[in-house]
Amino acid sequence: MASSTVTPPRPNRPSRPNLAFRHLRGQRSPAEFAALVRRAAREIGERVSCDARYIGRVEAGEIRCPNYAYERVFLHMFPGRTLTDLGFAPRSSVRGRGARAPEVTPGAHTTSPAHLTGETRGAGETRGAYEPYDTQNPYDTHHNDEESDVLRRAFMTGGGAAVAAVSLGPLGFTADAVAAERRVRPVGAREASALEEAVRRIRLLDDRHGADGLYRRAAAPLRAAYALLDAGATRQATAERLHSGAGELAISVGWLAHDSGRFEDARSHYAEALATARMTGDQALEAHAFCNTAFLARDAGRPREAVRAAQAAQRVARPLGSPRLMSLLALREAGGWAGLADRAGCEQALIRAQALFGQGPRDDDPEWMSFYGEAELEGLEAQCWSTLGDWGRAARHASRAAGLQDPHFTRNIALYTAELADDLARGGRPDEAATAGLRVLDLLDQVQSSRVQGMLDGTARVLAPHRRASGVSAFLERHASAPGERQQVPAPRSA
């Protein structure tokens, strides 16, 4: 479907914000609320690509009345309410002197939606109710460009299977005859398997190379996953696999955003996964979403939220029968207590984590927890002691973590060694810190992680006054000449 290449003029901005809509959002962030809107749309068969910007425009009063797709979604979310109850102007007042067909700028290639619905747009409505992917911000041409033309064509001509093939193809997730399909059909086991393989592939690449080079490439598979849900499945078992796979993929993409320092993007992806889990009653997915939300909250400087999310994850996960999962969730809670400088709370959670880990693996352990072994246990404990300022204890655990890690997890080896270097530097052992830092720099040819780079930046600042110590000068010089952008990102790892 073609769309206008000319940005439409901005309508006159209303004088008052939409306080009623803002009240309905409550304590959720705009991104979290946008995720709920997208989920509600899928429940009734609508397609809207609502994001935080759209919610902001509604609350600012820039959108006096939503388009018909958003109207149906909002009334579904808030049954019994009218548009005016939600703070919008009546549609009759917005349409004013009657419906008019949208103007076509000479030379612009457009497709009028009127012949698709029998309805025309009035002033103040957002465009996009008639497109396969709703474009929520008509003034943002950059965002419109980000909606892949290939995805649009695939969705219109080939249904969910073709979208999956086109979108997962860039990461090598599909290579069979699905890519050639052009008929619309319900989604089956083959597409569910492709989605599950996409999740595994992303995790494998992250384990080896880190998140920075993967995040943007993983956006297309995530869109494809939800296109598969929209297409529908032939069997209930397949539908459940699709929902679980889409939720796990949202978490994996959220982790890539998290590890590369894009915290707001990560929060939105985790909220999407949580909404998917609650809609389908998937306790395992819900526990995973809460687990990563707790980790993100800790890294983003919200330790009390980290504790609450970790405790919520433990409540959900308790019936699942996986001591290893409960151990990891206890470590997430410990990280929150450390951020609150509550040493007693942290130590109690660490003791629980160790005891649960000691019960050994079970058949019911989630697949995504393949990264969680003794090395990760040591690494996460090191981070707790580091947050509490016990540098010597932190360094001992970080050293064990680096030594225990399976060579496959190159990214984690770099992470644990960077943690070790930082703990040694802050603990007054600059020569040992420099040696560990050089080992990390050796791994950066294989690993692209803003988190690891950010930790090295902090270590370099701590070591700068000790330039004359053995090996420190060599580390500082090599660190300064290392390629790549540097940004300050907190520590560790989740799947």
Secondary-structure-based class equals mainly alpha
Query: How large, in whole angstroms, is the Cα Rg?
Result: 25 Å
Average pLDDT reading? 74
Q: Tell me about the largest β-sheet.
A: none
Write the H/E string, N to C: HHHHHHHHHHHHHHHHHHHHHH
Percent of residues in helical segments? 55-70%
**What is the level-2 CATH architecture name of the domain at 373-495?**
Alpha Horseshoe
* Low-confidence residue ranges: 1-14, 95-184, 485-495
Instruction: Please name the CATH topology of the domain at 373-495.
Output: Serine Threonine Protein Phosphatase 5, Tetratricopeptide repeat
Taking the alpha carbons of the first and last residues, their distance comes to 37 Å
InterPro entries: TPR-like_helical_dom_sf (IPR011990)
Region (Disordered): 93-144
Protein name: Tetratricopeptide repeat protein
Quick recap of the structure?
The chain has 495 residues and is an all-alpha fold.
Model description:
By secondary structure, this protein is mainly α. Among the domains are: 19-99 and 122-146, no CATH class; 373-495, Alpha Horseshoe (Serine Threonine Protein Phosphatase 5, Tetratricopeptide repeat). Helix content is 60%, strand content 0%. It contains 22 helices and no strands. It has helices at residues 19-25, 30-43, 52-60, 68-77, 91-95, 114-117, 141-146, 149-168, 189-209, 219-231, 236-259, 263-280, 283-299, 303-317, 323-339, 343-357, 374-387, 391-404, 410-426, 430-443, 450-463, 472-481. Helix 14 (303-317) runs antiparallel to helix 15 (323-339). The longest helix has 24 residues, at 236-259. It starts with 18 loop residues before the first helix and ends in a 14-residue tail after the last helix.
